[in-house]
Amino acid sequence: MSLSQATCEACQADAPQVTDQELAELIAMIPDWTPITVDGVMQLQREYKFKNFKLALAFTNKLGELAEAEFHHPGILTEWGKVTVTWWTHAIGGLHRNDFIMAAKTDELLS
Predict the structure, then answer these.
(1) Structural domains in the chain plus CATH codes
(2) For the chain, the helix, strand and coil percentages under 3-state DSSP, each to the nearest 5
(3) What is the C-alpha to C-alpha distance for residues 30 and 26, in angstroms, rounded to an integer?
(4) pLDDT recorded at residue 64
(5) pLDDT at 1 > cutoff 70
(6) What are the residues facing 41 on neighbouring strands?
(7) Torsion angle of alpha carbons 19, 21, 27, 33, nearest 10°?
(8) Is 60 helix (H, G, I), strand (E, B) or coil?
(9) Axis crossing angle, helix 97-108 with helix 20-27, rounded to the nearest 10
(10) Alpha-carbon distance 6 to 77, whole Å?
(11) Helices (H), the chain
(12) Which pLDDT belongs to residue 14?
């Protein structure tokens, strides 16, 4: 099953973060995403390019609907011609499998 077809699971504060091995396996499935560390917290980030602000905003709104449906919410920076999306699991202060699932689902919003 592809990541985008998977379902997020409820995540508690004691849920494990992905291991280094899981990170390597999962990031290979979403190659346009970059693992970053912000204030000691591992996150996934991708920048999407658009022709104008209107298209960037439309993408942001679709992403907002997806996030609400999955009850998992990213950081979103919407600017003229681009949207930067950052996924991480706040409850565990790092990356969970859910973040990779949501990154894959975010990519599908372009199709």
Answers:
(1) 40-111 (3.30.1360.20)
(2) 40, 25, 35
(3) 7
(4) 98
(5) no
(6) 38
(7) 50
(8) helix
(9) 10
(10) 25
(11) 20-27, 53-70, 97-108
(12) 82
Terminus-to-terminus CA distance in the chain, angstroms? 19
Both tokens assigned to 107: 């990519």
Tell the residue number behind the tokens 């699991």, with chain if given.
Answer: 89
Burial class (CB in 10 A: 0-12, 13-18, 19+), 85: buried
32, HSE (Cβ side, Cα atoms, 13 Å): 12
The pair phi, psi for residue 60, each rounded to 5°, is -60, -45
Read off the pLDDT of residues 43-101 as tens digits, 9 standing for 90 and up. Answer: 999 999 999 999 999 999 999 999 999 999 999 999 999 999 999 999 999 999 999 99
